[in-house]
Design a protein that fits this description.
about 15% strand; 15 strands; about 400 residues; Aspartate Aminotransferase, domain 2; about 45% helix; 2 domains; binds pyridoxal-5'-phosphate; Aspartate Aminotransferase, domain 1; alpha/beta; four-stranded antiparallel beta sheet
């Protein structure tokens, strides 16, 4: 292997929220962190080389997009996602969540309703609430180890609350679904029928495990493209979240103008030069690294599945179709040991000393679930699972 995804790089003291906020967030100082969705390995050497060149150039003044960036972006979208955005559609933001906030503010008024499908990435809810919009949730449901959309509930909630905006998570964090075309079409039809604008957060689109296939929401039809914003980023794909650069594609000129007007009000201006430099290098030369990363993630998923079977057989893995975040169901273990959701969480954090994301952070549907980030070297993943298995074994003794 050219890239060593099993080499452990110590992140402590590197201003990483994953490792350096443990005490501040009430976790033990020696906790092993597999919570927030970034990766524990350095990015692709091709990106590092581009960043080094920029550092050697030494000038970090105001920056702008150029043809080489857009060509690289477009080639990537075409090759990886059968998506051919026009340059005019592009609006960059310093992150996907920033784009979500622009959309909330652009397409709804205070008090108006925004719908999300819970359990889901928690900033969706937080941003809706923080901007004084009405939070409407439609619960996903689990059947035979797979999570699904309740379309009737989704439509009813839209009608009852006069919903104006839907924030779609595709692929879905944390339930690991890669929505199939038919599911997306049903969602799109409902939203068109009730004039609900769709913000499709597709940040996890480069983590899809075959035979699953990601469908870019706006490619469903011309009508859907006119009614949606699609947001993507190199930040998950190449572990560049700290460089704060993401891309939104808005085909409809009216929606784009409203989105940009909100963006302009924030006072944020040109994109970060390091974010832009890294993104261009990623799209141009990042593929070989990503291919190897996929092999590592696949083998980590296999490892978790086998580990659970051997040592934590009451914990169920929801088989991921996409993302590097696994959704683990502890409900049977809780029933067997007579433990509540918060007792399970306490054992994981304070006895096992492993920091995962507790399922209820994503919505009440996440009760008894924990989300584990497997984009980490195997030794860390193994240690985390061993610690968890030992901590529950100690409860039984
Ligand atoms: C679904 C989803 N959207 C957005 C983000 C964060 O995006 P950004 O850091 O670009 O704001 C994450 C990070 O975990 C995510 O899972």
């Amino acid at each position: 292997m050219i890239y060593d995804f099993n080499k452990v790089t110590d992140r402590h003291g590197s201003n990483s929220i994953k490792t350096d906020l443990a005490l501040a967030r009430g976790k033990p100082a020696d906790v092993l962190s597999l919570w927030v969705a970034d990766m524990d390995f350095p990015t692709s050497p091709a990106i590092l080389e581009a960043l080094h060149k920029k550092v050697d150039h030494g000038i970090f003044g105001y920056s702008c997009l150029d043809d080489s960036f857009f060509t690289a972006l477009k080639n990537w979208m075409q090759t990886e996602h059968d998506f051919s955005p026009d340059r005019r559609e592009l609006v960059t933001t310093p992150g996907v969540v920033f784009g979500i906030v622009c959309a909330i503010r652009a397409f709804t008024q205070e008090g108006e309703a925004v719908i999300i499908q819970t359990p889901v990435y928690y900033p969706f809810k937080n941003m809706i609430v923080a901007n004084n919009r009405k939070l409407v949730t439609s619960s996903l449901y689990e059947k035979d180890g797979k999570w699904f959309i309740d379309f009737d509930d989704f439509e009813k909630k839209i009608i009852d609350n006069k919903v104006k905006l839907f924030i779609l998570c595709s692929p879905h964090n944390p339930v690991g679904r890669v929505w199939i075309r038919e599911e997306l079409e049903r969602i799109a039809e409902i939203c068109l029928r009730h004039k609900v604008i769709v913000f499709a957060d597709e940040i996890h689109n480069d983590f899809v495990y075959p035979p699953n296939k990601h469908t870019v929401f706006s490619t469903l039809s011309e009508e859907v493209a006119e009614n949606s914003i699609v947001s993507m980023s190199v930040s998950k794909t190449f572990n560049l979240a700290g460089l704060q650069f993401s891309t939104n594609f808005i085909k409809n000129p009216g929606l784009r103008a409203r989105f940009k007007a909100e963006f302009d009000k924030t006072g944020y201006d040109e994109p970060s030069i390091m974010g832009l430099t890294a993104a261009r290098a990623a799209y141009q030369n990042g593929k070989p690294w990503l291919e190897e990363l996929h092999k590592h993630l696949k083998s980590n998923i296999d490892f978790v599945r086998d580990f659970l079977k051997d040592k934590l057989s009451l914990v169920r893995l929801i088989e991921p179709e996409g993302t590097f975040l696994l959704w683990l169901d502890f409900s049977k273990l809780g029933t067997k040991l007579g433990l509540s959701d918060s007792e399970i969480d306490d054992i994981i954090v304070n006895k096992a000393k492993v920091w995962l994301d507790r399922g209820t952070m994503f919505g009440q549907e996440g009760e008894f679930y924990q989300r584990i980030n497997i984009a980490t070297p195997r030794p860390l993943l193994e240690e985390a699972l061993e610690r968890i298995a030992n901590a529950f074994a100690a409860v039984v003794e």
